[in-house]
Amino acid sequence: MSETRRSIASTVSVTGIGLHTGAQVTATLGPAPSGSGIVFRRVDVADAPDIPARLAAVHDTDRRLVLGSAEVNVGTVEHLLAAAAGLGIDDLTVEVDGPELPSGDGSALAFAEALTSAEPAEQEGTVQHIAVRAPFTVHAGDTRYLIAPSGALHLTVAIDFDHAAVGRQAASIELTPASFLQELAGARTFGFRHEVTVLQERGLARGASTDNAVALEPDGQASAPLRWPDEFARHKALDLLGDLALLGGRLRAEIVAMRPGHTRNVELARTIERTALSTTPPVMGIQEILGVLPHRYPFLLVDRIVHTEPGKRIVGIKNVTMNEPFFPGHFPDHPVMPGVLIVEAMAQTGGMLLLGQVDDTEGKIVYFMSIDDVKFRKPVIPGDQLRFELEMLRFRGKTCHMQGVAYVDGQPVAEAKMMAAIVDR
């Protein structure tokens, strides 16, 4: 796959019925500036905010992937995201005039054909590669993922359904644009006929038909001839690819998924985001942080800001080394980072989020007023990299409520709720 960023050269539209809403919708796919990623825009809603195809925008994962908020969202985006990932499209605008993307025939084929006809085009900018550093597993209920480093993205998906047309099956693919088009794009969604009424009562599957899904009949048959004997496993791999596209970069990993689904796929993506190596440059390096925070050695405890959504969320990094000034006196024979300093580092990251709400950062400072519900899950030792994820819960006047979690290798080590205020220096 090309190592340069790619968008498309022209605009193209896909029209059809939404699988779950039953709405007639048109999605218009267009070029996007380098580095913008994939962005959805509801053109039928006045002043609707752009919705980035990122993990932070996930709103719902029940039977489909929905991005946005309770007020403005767009649903069933996984097939388009899979098509973009499979074809190596990094930057794309998607304008949609309804609450859901059109379903096509239940696969990603309509989107893949549209993107291909719009002529994928290289553009300047750095491709973000996301590489898994070491093997690990993720278990949730009866879903299991095995993840290992790889020079490419290789997906293997196994499923097991109590239906004669499905049974146990597995599909495996190494992702390239050619293999995606030939082996994955056309795999259709499927569902049990007897579930339709229950799903429709929940507001789902209102546009479902044998035109956009393969129905599994009570007599053990499928409603249409299959395109591959393992088409259902391939479709699950297609969904997994679309969900992993929320990482916002080109993933390099070997992933074996057993009984995957949208909710678990998103949890997997979040774990990968917290543990993988990324080529994306930091949003703020140490020099920029020094220009905002008043702290200095030995009490500056944030090294990088790697992600920020103003007024919503921030992610910071602290590399813990044996040279930290607190280790000689804190359990010197068994070096463990003091829990209060983990919380302090989390608070400093949160202070960066809060100061992003004001124009005059030089004239302001953040004081924390309370820290509640603090929990320490695991010790932090030299060699660990702390990842702080903070979400702004409420901001009124000059006071902010935040919730933060600290991770090491994707596992939570500490969490807390905080209240802070911006005051004049």
How would you describe this structure to a colleague?
The chain is an alpha+beta fold and 425 residues long. The chain folds into three domains: 4-126, lpxc deacetylase, domain 1 (Ribosomal Protein S5, domain 2, 2-Layer Sandwich); 130-277, lpxc deacetylase, domain 1; 286-424, Thiol Ester Dehydrase, Chain A (Roll). Helix content is 19%, strand content 36%. The protein is built from eight helices and 25 strands. The chain has helices at 78-87, 109-117, 177-183, 196-201, 231-244, 262-275, 286-290, 339-355, and strands spanning 4-8, 12-17, 24-30, 38-42, 51-52, 58-60, 66-68, 73-74, 92-96, 120-126, 129-131, 136-140, 143-148, 153-161, 167-174, 190-192, 214-216, 250-258, 277-278, 304-309, 313-319, 364-376, 385-396, 399-408, 411-424. The strands form six sheets. Strands 11, 12, 13, 14, 15, 18 and 19 form a seven-stranded mixed β-sheet that branches. The chain has a six-stranded antiparallel β-sheet with strand order 20-21-23-24-25-22. Helix 5 (231-244) packs across helix 6 (262-275). The longest helix has 17 residues, at 339-355. The chain starts with a strand and ends with a strand.
